[in-house]
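Entry 12.
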Amino acid sequence: MENPDKETLDNWHKDPNNWKWGIFYYNPKDTRGMVPKKIEWMGWTINFANTKAVLLFFGMTLFFIFVVTLITNHQS
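Predicted 3D structure (tokens):
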């Protein structure tokens, strides 16, 4: 689905089948990389069905670990 309407997006968001373990959003039909969390006022999460979003998430995580490791080793 190229550009789903707001009603479709809301239905996807409310569908419990799109939430793994209640916290991870996984919907292959949804092309968005970032989606509102299940409790929307808590911020955003990634769509784990979107390969680009997952790669970006892991890339940022690895970069963060690398920076922390550099800082920790430099202080020794």
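Annotation: The mean pLDDT is 92. Residues 6-75 form one domain.
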